[in-house]
Amino acid sequence: WLKVLSRIDSILQSPRAPPSIFRPSKGPVQNYIKENQQGCGFEHLPLTIEMWADQLVALKDLHRSLRKLSLELLPWNTKDPQDNRESIRVEDLQLIVDAILEELEHKEKNSQTQSLHTLSAIVSHFQKLFDVNSLNGVYPRMNEVYTKLGEMTNAMRNLHELLELDSSAPPTVVVDTVGKLCDIITKNVTEQVQQLLGTQDIHSIINKLEEHECFFPPFQALIQDLLCLLEISNMDDILPAVQNLK
């Protein structure tokens, strides 16, 4: 018993011992101990030792959980020098946690580097697509593209409404519809010209236009000469002026 007390006393005097491990007895128990000279102040130690035993068991459970987490995050690191040891130390757990934290920091740095590389590739691709020679011109060209896109979107929306098309109709449908309208308008204009010139043959229309082209220049020159000769400025005054000469 004395050896046990001596061993406990040496542990308590160690610099690593918790400062509150020794708690002197109080009350009747203390008086009894003083009278019988049997007190040592360690009556609470059984409960403390039981608590430590539970903590050691929990430490093993915590080590098992950390090992599972390590295998999830570090599947290549399957070797654990503490697997075959019965006692688990806090240092063992700290090593696992440090390895996990180091791997997470490494992944974060790689993610940031990859992100910067991706952003640089996107900017370079934008410069090629929209013919931007410098980084300073990227933002102005972005604004210009955004403005043009807005104008085109509004124009397409208006065309959908004017042509009575569904809003989901693609641009190809809009272009085809506009083309059909142009064909209809061109056909109507051709028919009107044919009615005006009194012919249904395109070659006859061309011949009549050529005849008019040959006739009107000399006729215009004659009228100009008459206006100058009669000293008048209006073509309607030519006939009265000629009648006055009779």
Please tell me about this protein's structure.
The chain is an all-alpha fold and 246 residues long. 72% of the residues lie in helices and 0% in strands. The protein has 8 helices and no strands. The longest helix is centred in the middle third of the chain and has 40 residues. The radius of gyration is 53 Å and the shape is rod-shaped. It starts with a helix and ends with a helix. About 8% of the residues have low confidence.
Proportion in β-strands: under 5%
Determine the structural class based on helices, strands and strand pairing: mainly alpha
Mean pLDDT, rounded to whole units?
76
Cα-atom Rg, whole angstroms? Answer: 53 Å
GO molecular function: gamma-tubulin binding
Subunit structure: Directly interacts with tubulin-gamma; this interaction determines centrosomal localization.
Subcellular location: Cytoplasm, Cytoskeleton, Microtubule organizing center, Centrosome
InterPro entries: ARM-type_fold, CEP70
Features:
rod-shaped, coiled coil, mainly alpha, cytoplasm, TPR repeat, ARM-type_fold
In summary, what is this structure?
With 246 residues, the chain is mostly helical. It contains 8 helices and no strands. The protein has helices at 2-12, 27-36, 45-73, 90-129, 138-162, 171-197, 202-229, 238-244.
In terms of topology, how is this protein built?
Elements: H1 2-12, H2 27-36, H3 45-73, H4 90-129, H5 138-162, H6 171-197, H7 202-229, H8 238-244
GO molecular function, one term: gamma-tubulin binding
Keywords: Coiled coil, Cytoplasm, Cytoskeleton, TPR repeat
InterPro entries: ARM-type_fold, CEP70
